[in-house]
Amino acid sequence: MRIRAAVLEQFGEPLKVTDLELAPPRSGEVLVRLVACGVCHTDMYSASGVDPSGYAPTVLGHEGAGVVEALGPDVKDLAVGDHVVTLFSPQCRECEHCRSERTNLCTAIRAQQNLGYLPDGTTRLSRDGQPVRHFMGTSTFATHTVMPEIALARVNPQAPLEAACLFACGLSTGIGAATSTAQVHEGSTVVVFGAGMVGLGAVVGARLQRAARIICVDLSEERLRMARHHGATDTWLGGEDTVERVLEETDGMGADYTIEATGLVAVMRQAVEAARMGWGLATMCGVAGKGETLDVIPRLLITGRRIAGSSFGGLKGRDQVPKLVDRYLAGEIDVDAFISHRITLEQVNEGFELMHRQDGIRSVISFT
Question: Taking the complete model, does pTM exceed 0.85, yes or no?
Answer without folding.
Answer: yes
